[in-house]
Design goal:
Chain lengths: ~150, ~150
């Protein structure tokens, strides 16, 4: 009943939002089909891009600090805010959904796997896979090691 | 100042532990690539399931927060300090990368999405998913389709 780490966010994102993100990712790759200028720069940008987990964690931690700040200065009732946020954060970790998740997805925040998808497609376009044989039956350990370094 | 998402955990992992994790990935690759296509398919499925560092932190941090809030409301306000600590450490993790549990998780061999993706793409390359992408390939659509993490 616990969904896969790599799929739990797309599974809980509205289909049209997933599709929008997929189309944008594809367009980012197609941009470099003919002209590789700027491709290296784009790969560095991808390393810096905030994925959905990093965004949700930061959002959660900020709500907790805010709620405890208000709870200790204004009224104890404010402590319910971090309690609810913590409940939803656990739900997100286990199940893949929490209230702010669809909002951030609409803003275009991608999963690490979606970012890796663009990165790997760009690397293939750049020619990083040149000389890597693709036939499983002929593979030896050394080419596996070669592949992981790409 | 703000660490890059892709390698912020790796940068905060002791070198010998990072090497050990990479070695385990290479051994897994060697094992699955020599066992044929079905073994690779199965392994790719496992990689999707694998709990990464972020998912474990996302489970642990709110549990600590809740414990601090419960004790803070019932026993002593001082326990709220536990929740404040948990949230502050999570902020630190997201800005800079380090986290108090990170050395433990990494010693246990828990990987990042980046490390899991490295194994996934090595397997996909070995399986021949990227056959169409040769020298100076200008076929963006083919590259995009080949790189699909859940594609066959």
């Amino acid at each position: 009943m616990i969904p896969a780490t790599a799929r739990r966010v797309p599974e809980h994102t509205p289909r049209q939002v997933n599709e929008q993100i997929r189309r944008r990712t594809e367009a980012n790759v197609l941009r470099f089909s003919q002209d590789p200028a700027g491709l290296d720069h784009r790969l560095r940008e991808l390393d810096k891009e905030w994925d959905i987990e990093r965004t949700l964690q930061t959002n959660f931690a900020s709500i907790v600090l805010l709620g405890i700040g208000l709870g200790t200065t204004i009224h104890r009732r404010w402590l319910a805010l971090p309690a609810v946020a913590a409940g939803f954060m656990v739900q997100h970790a286990l199940q893949g959904w929490c209230p702010p998740m669809p909002v951030f997805r609409r803003f275009g925040f991608r999963t690490a796997a979606e970012i890796a998808h663009e990165r790997q497609a760009l690397k293939a376009l750049r020619g990083d896979l040149r000389g890597v044989p693709g036939d499983v039956r002929r593979e030896s350990q050394s080419s596996g090691e070669q592949a992981v370094k790409r | 100042m703000i660490a890059a998402t892709a390698d912020r955990v790796e940068r905060n992992t002791a070198a010998h532990i990072a090497r050990k994790i990479n070695r385990q990935t290479e051994q897994s690759l060697a094992r699955h690539s020599s066992a044929g296509r079905e073994a690779i398919d199965r392994r790719l499925f496992e990689l999707d399931e694998e709990w990464d560092v972020e998912r474990l932190i996302e489970t642990e941090a709110p549990v600590m927060t809740l414990i601090g809030l419960a004790l803070g409301a019932s026993v002593s306000r001082k326990w709220l300090g536990l929740s404040v600590f948990a949230a502050s450490m999570l902020l630190l993790h997201n800005v800079q990368g380090w986290y108090p549990l990170l050395p433990v998780l990494r010693r246990l061999g828990v990987r990042t999405q980046g490390e899991i993706a490295a194994e996934r793409y090595a397997l996909k390359i070995l399986r021949g998913d990227f056959k169409t992408t040769g020298e100076h390939d200008s076929n963006g659509s083919a590259a995009f389709a080949s790189a699909n993490p859940h594609g066959a």
